[in-house]
Specification:
Strand order of the largest sheet: 2-1-4-3
Number of domains: 1
Number of helices: 5
Structural class: alpha+beta
Shape: elongated
Number of strands: 4
Distance between the termini: 69 Å
Helix content: 25-40%
Oligomer: single chain
């Protein structure tokens, strides 16, 4: 019977650190180093279709994908910057929302 040695998980999973970069847009500031942003969460995800998962809308609820980068190490973590959805979508006033609701009736 064959025996597999080594850490196969290192080739099949990647650590992703999701950071909130909303303040860059809110305050109109240049980007900071990845380590300076607040961390929303960290998780391990499969490497299969990795980039497709990062850019999907379901990756972080309430946030939109902005950018990603690696630390340069093959097995190092990836940083994924996300922005609050409310900053990217147009804000509607209460009067506009009421008009839109009446128009759909």
């Amino acid at each position: 019977m064959a025996n597999i040695d080594g850490s196969l998980w290192a080739y099949n999973l990647v650590k992703v650190t999701v950071i909130d970069v909303s303040d860059d847009y809110r305050l109109m500031q240049p980007p900071m180093p990845s380590e300076c942003y607040p961390v929303l969460y960290e998780k391990w995800i499969p490497t299969y279709k990795f980039l497709e998962r990062l850019t999907s809308d379901e990756f972080v609820a309430g946030y939109l994908y902005d950018w990603h980068e690696t630390t340069g190490n093959q097995f190092g973590p990836w940083y994924v910057g996300v922005v609050e959805r409310s900053l990217a979508l147009p804000q509607t006033t209460a009067a506009e929302a009421k008009r839109e609701q009446q128009a759909t009736l």
